[in-house]
């Protein structure tokens, strides 16, 4: 199915849509979080998702990755409709996507090397020696060193945990990566270095990225497009430069408030 999608996208010259959300309704009891929300992410795009606190960014991420069932609408990932997913399709999505949760979500009892190797152990039948070689490669790709291989998560700094989490998210060579506030909790220098790493990896590996962030610097530094969640839906998806000209009150405040202006200056 995926190959068919790829072929048709290639033959029509249209970019391939990796995430397609249509008419999403998300509720907790009577409380409506998303209503009639539409969102696309096309192959190769680094998409930042922003919105006020409680706007529903995490609920949207959880719905797209299958941790929350939507109350209405359709959610397609890599061409597969989540509502009618077979086990084979679910496994295909799992193999072709990587997720970096906010705190890294590393297994605390495993070393960095074992954490990064774990998706390969779960999803491949490769010999152990090959699995560990591949894991070492991913660890090097995110800028960690061989002396970090045997450290446990509790022995890592916040930035190193994020890097280890990213290495694990990349273990299976995914096409699509989900990042939940990748720079949260990092100091400005660590955050800028992590931004550079994400952009570099996205370019070098041809990754498509869905990233929740509060970090304006990240938006300016690495996002091709930004989707803004407000009023229970995506009110805009555009480049940061286009969003700076938006009339939407939340977008105006976000991009043209004091913090927005600071990020604009840094990016210039
Ligand atoms: N399991 C749940 N049960 C009930 N309400 C929930 C649940 N999860 C989230 N919510 C509510 O859904 C709304 C959106 O939450 P969400 O975590 O997606 O916001 P967010 O945009 O990610 O916010 P923040 O930027 O503060 O992390 C919030 O009002 C939250 O209280």
UniProtKB/TrEMBL annotation:
Signal peptide: none annotated. It comes from the Bacteria. Residues 19-256 form the ABC transporter domain. It holds the Pfam family ABC_tran. Transmembrane segments: none annotated. GO terms for molecular function: ATP binding. It comes from Brevundimonas nasdae. The keyword ATP-binding applies. The keyword Mitochondrion does not apply. CDD domains: ABC_Org_Solvent_Resistant. This is ABC transporter ATP-binding protein. PROSITE patterns: ABC_TRANSPORTER_1, ABC_TRANSPORTER_2. Keywords: ATP-binding, Nucleotide-binding, Transport.
């Amino acid at each position: 199915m995926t190959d068919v999608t790829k072929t048709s996208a290639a033959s029509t010259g249209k970019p391939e849509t990796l995430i397609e959300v249509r008419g999403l309704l998300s509720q907790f009891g009577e409380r409506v979080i998303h209503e009639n929300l539409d969102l696309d992410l096309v192959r190769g795009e680094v998409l930042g998702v922003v919105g006020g606190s409680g706007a529903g960014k995490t609920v949207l991420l959880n719905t797209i990755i299958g941790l929350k069932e939507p109350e209405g609408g359709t959610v397609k990932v890599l061409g597969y409709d989540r509502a009618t997913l077979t086990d084979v399709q679910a496994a295909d999505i799992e193999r072709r996507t990587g997720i970096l949760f906010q705190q890294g979500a590393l297994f605390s009892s495993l070393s960095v090397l074992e954490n990064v190797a774990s998706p390969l152990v779960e999803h491949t039948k490769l010999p152990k020696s090959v699995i560990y070689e591949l894991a070492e490669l991913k660890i090097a790709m995110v800028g960690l060193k061989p002396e970090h291989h045997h450290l446990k998560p509790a022995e890592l700094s916040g930035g190193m945990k994020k890097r280890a989490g990213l290495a694990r998210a990349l273990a299976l060579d995914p096409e699509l990566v989900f990042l939940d506030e990748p720079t949260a909790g990092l100091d400005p220098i660590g955050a800028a270095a992590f931004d550079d790493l994400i952009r570099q990896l996205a370019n070098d590996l041809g990754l498509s990225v869905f990233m929740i962030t509060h970090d304006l610097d990240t938006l300016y530094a690495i996002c091709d497009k930004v989707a803004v969640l407000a009023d229970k839906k995506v009110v805009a998806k555009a480049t940061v430069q286009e969003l700076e000209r938006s009339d939407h009150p939340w977008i105006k405040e976000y991009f043209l408030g004091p913090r927005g202006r600071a990020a604009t200056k840094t990016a210039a």
